[in-house]
Amino acid sequence: MPLGRFGRDLETQLRDLDDAGTGKGAESVVVAVRPAQGGRGPRLLLDGQGDREFIRMNSNSYLGLTLDPELARAEESAAHAFGVGPGAVRFISGTYQPHVRLETALAQFHARPAAMVAGSAYTAVAGVLFSLSTPETALISDELNHNCIVNGMKLARAKLRKVYPHLNLQTLQSQLEECAGQCDSAIVITDGVFSMRGDHAPVDRILELVARYDGRFARGAVLIVDDSHGVGAFGATGRGTEEITGGRADVLVGTLGKAMGVNGGYICSDATVIRYLREKNPFYIYSNPIAPGEAAAALASLELIRGGARLLSHLREMTKRFRDGIKSLGYETIDGQHPVVPLLVRDTDRTRALVAFLRENGVLATGLNYPVVPKGEQLIRFQVSADHTASDIDEVLAVLARFRNR
Ligand SMILES: Cc1ncc(COP(=O)(O)O)c(C=O)c1O
To answer: Which pLDDT does position 406 carry in this prediction?
Structure first.
């Protein structure tokens, strides 16, 4: 049945997106991945682009583990042993040995008493916010937090919802002060690493503030950190923003789908919180877990990361080479060590032109324009990976140099 006025209204909205230039548009389809060879990292072939090869500078697979043969072997062997899908939600008959082993390993990795695997980091965050909040809770969030936090806050029951300017702890403190008289509990939530800019939250200082206000709420105050971009890729041993800052979240959310190279999310906390979430979190109770093969691959990934000082040090070296390189070409960036390296263009048309130029020259990078980022902060987000070689980085820098000298 044609959708009539309803469908026409959607068409109008889509046309508006196209006219404003803010639509995501057609997706690039990867038709082949050519493995690393001869001092070069992997190259992608895209549908409609013939034999042209692309260097990927827009993947979250910061350690290059999506293509790791050990992970593929672990996934395949678990799929043969347990099946390619879970067949049910966890509490019915969908809990397999790889899920449990992975949860034990994640808890150990983050030095927490307990962990649980989630379908994705997105649903992990939404589920934690939904399950831990009550109609008397204050939810307080950084303005640049990921969309899963923004929507998780809408879904959660809360008395007050507050958003503080990016990294502004003074405002966070006044919001805690204001909520203390009105709510019985406070949940402060922040990204660890902010994915658009590669900067990070001072988890240690935020924790200190939350601890200071804990006694002012009848049910206490807690800190949730979503470190999806930090875990695996940040800190001397890949423990993420907590390792960089020395702070420690009450509830830590991570993803298996970025540095770990697989798919799915997880939550680490103390045993009571995890048990409570297994009983109360609808995203966990009523939705299938990741496949046993994905859990086995993630476990193999975690083992590689634990013994993977070499991977991390190569990632840091390539990140520094790229960041220093774009600075010496006269481009503006944000200092830091995270492999998200923003190139601030500060203009929508020029951002689009540079992304197109990079693509014409075999480099995939993501342009972020208003309204995804504030006006004046338009940027190109480059993501360095441990499967980039020095010659890959230099090749991308050479393209950026040509754009500058046009
Ligand atoms: C902070 C943050 N949380 C969650 C997610 C979503 O991760 P997942 O793909 O595991 O749902 C992202 C992805 O970009 C993210 O940046």
So the answer is: 85
State the closest ligand 1 atom to the C-alpha of 195, by its place in the atom list counted from 1. Answer: 16
Mean residue pLDDT of the chain comes to: 96
Q: Is the CB of 190 under 6 A from ligand 1?
A: no
Instruction: Please say if 375 is a catalytic residue.
Output: no
- Domain layout of the chain by residue ranges: 33-57+309-404, 69-306
By alpha-carbon position, which residue is closest to atom 8 of ligand 1?
121
Distance (Å) from CA 96 to ligand 1 centroid: 24
How many angstroms separate the CA atoms of 132 and 264, rounded? 21
Share above pLDDT 70 across residues of the chain, in percent, rounded to a whole number: 100
Closest CA to 192 of 246, 115, 262, 126: 246
Report cis status (omega within 30 of 0) of the bond before 42: no
Report whether pLDDT(72) > 90.
Answer: yes
Taking the centre of ligand 1 as the mean of its atom positions, its distance from the CA of residue 374, in whole angstroms, is: 20
* Pair 210, 192: CB distance under 8 Å: no
Q: Residue whose CA is closest, atom 16 of ligand 1?
A: 195
CATH match of 33-57+309-404 with 3.40.630.30: no
Q: Average pLDDT of 162-184? A: 97
Annotated catalytic residue: which of 120, 131, 133, 195?
Answer: 195
Q: Which of the four CATH numbers 3.30.1330.50, 3.40.640.10, 3.40.50.360, 1.10.1040.50 does domain 69-306 have?
A: 3.40.640.10
Does the annotation mark 258 as catalytic? yes
